Amino acid sequence: MLIESQCLVPSSPGPIWDLIMDVPQTAFCVPGLEEIKPGEDGKFQATLKARVGPITLTFTGTIQMLEQDPELHLAKFLLLGSDRRVGGSFQTNMTVRLIPQGPNETQLDISADTMFMGKLGELGQPIIRRKTASTIDQFVKNLAEKLA
After folding, report:
1. Which CATH architecture fits 2-147?
2. Domain segments of the chain: what residues?
3. HEC assignment per residue over the chain
4. How does strand 105-118 pair with strand 2-9?
5. What is the pTM of this model?
6. CA angle in degrees (0–180, nearest 5) for 25-17-63
7. Per-residue model confidence (pLDDT) at position 119
């Protein structure tokens, strides 16, 4: 499932890029993030609580930066998580791109391609799509507030 989101942030790309490269600071912009700590091989271990439809899930997993291009302001991440209680997991390939729009305005584009496995995949596309889209939108808003 591919979800894309974009917004204008009242800042030049530099400060936004610096924040995005600080994975723990940026991760706390994700609603429901409870904990993040450095792991092995540049990965970060994270715990996230999310309500999807009638179910509250607690995901444990990793965030890994796969690629970064400071000149293009493009970064790619891999997010993996699972909830043992429900027996489901997800894998998200996320791309973040910054596009200058003026001296103090930048378009923030986020593309998240997520695959749900196990019981999570059985919840239904409309419910999962709404939750994923609202999580990304709230992340973008939180990131913009952190920069303000």
Report:
1. 2-Layer Sandwich (3.30)
2. 2-147
3. CEEEEEEEECCCHHHHHHHHHCHHHHHCCCCCEEEEEECCCCCEEEEEEEEECCEEEEEEEEEEEEEEECCCCEEEEEEEEEECCCCEEEEEEEEEEEEEEECCEEEEEEEEEEEEEEHHHHCCHHHHHHHHHHHHHHHHHHHHHHHC
4. antiparallel
5. 0.87
6. 45
7. 77
Question: Which residue matches tokens 């994975």?
Answer: 23
- CA torsion through residues 130, 76, 80, 113, sign: positive
Give the model confidence (pLDDT) of 72-126 as tens digits.
Answer: 999 999 999 999 888 888 899 999 999 999 888 999 999 999 888 887 777 666 7
